[in-house]
Amino acid sequence: MLRFFKMQGCGNDYIFIDCRSQSVPHPHLLARRVSDRHFGVGGDGLVLLLPAEGADLAMRIFNADGSEAEMCGNAIRCVGKYLYDNAMVQKTEMTIETLRIQTAAGLRVLWNGPQKAVTVVMGRPSPLSGAGVRWQGEALTRLSVGNPHGVLFCPDIEHFPLAQAAAEIARTARLNLEAVQILEKNHLKMR
């Protein structure tokens, strides 16, 4: 039997297991089982909390399909909130180690802000190389903040078919997809 808890940040919901007192032998398989929204707990994936050298904690993220992710801003904020709320970290600033594969993931700094909201320094986005990803003739702007993102600029995000675009793009590229509307200089709206 494994002890777990579930949290969400901005709609990203994850199942968390504190592996400092228990182990998960095959996390990629467990992620697929527990993330199933019909026969499991249901979630976007599985997050393991692990001891770390040089950081307050380490985390590993496994997506619902069992693949390992480098970073998720919403998941790491949940980890910070859990540690603060349960007095596992007694300081207002903490560091969490994330997986570093190809992009800018690695050590992240979090702090407990106003109204007990946890903020994470995601770092400066870096462009992703490789073949361009397109949807209906439009090229995505691809970048990484520790995990891959694709941005489609559109005139009206409220009516943009984001689920359809995400499903079609997922056939050829693994990334988080955002639709962005430019409202005015330095003012954007995003879904």
Number of strands: 15
Q: Cα-atom Rg, whole angstroms?
A: 17 Å
SSE order, one letter for each helix or strand: EEHEEEHEEEEEEEEHEE
Number of helices: 3
SSE layout:
Blueprint: E1 5-9, E2 12-18, H1 27-35, E3 45-50, E4 57-63, E5 68-69, H2 73-85, E6 93-97, E7 107-112, E8 118-120, E9 126-127, E10 134-135, E11 138-139, E12 141-144, E13 148-153, H3 162-169, E14 176-184, E15 187-190
Parallel strand pairs: 2-3, 4-6, 13-14
Antiparallel strand pairs: 1-2, 3-4, 4-5, 6-7, 7-8, 9-12, 10-11, 12-13, 14-15
Structure description:
- With 191 residues, the chain is α+β, with helices and mostly antiparallel strands.
- The chain has helices at 27-35, 73-85, 162-169, and strands spanning 5-9, 12-18, 45-50, 57-63, 68-69, 93-97, 107-112, 118-120, 126-127, 134-135, 138-139, 141-144, 148-153, 176-184, 187-190.
- Strand 7 and strand 8 (118-120) form a beta hairpin.
- The radius of gyration is 17 Å and the shape is globular.
Outline of the structure:
The chain is of the alpha+beta class and 191 residues long. The chain contains 3 helices and 15 strands.
Task: Offer a few descriptive terms.
5-stranded mixed β-sheet; 8-stranded mixed β-sheet; about 190 residues; alpha+beta; 15 strands; about 35% strand
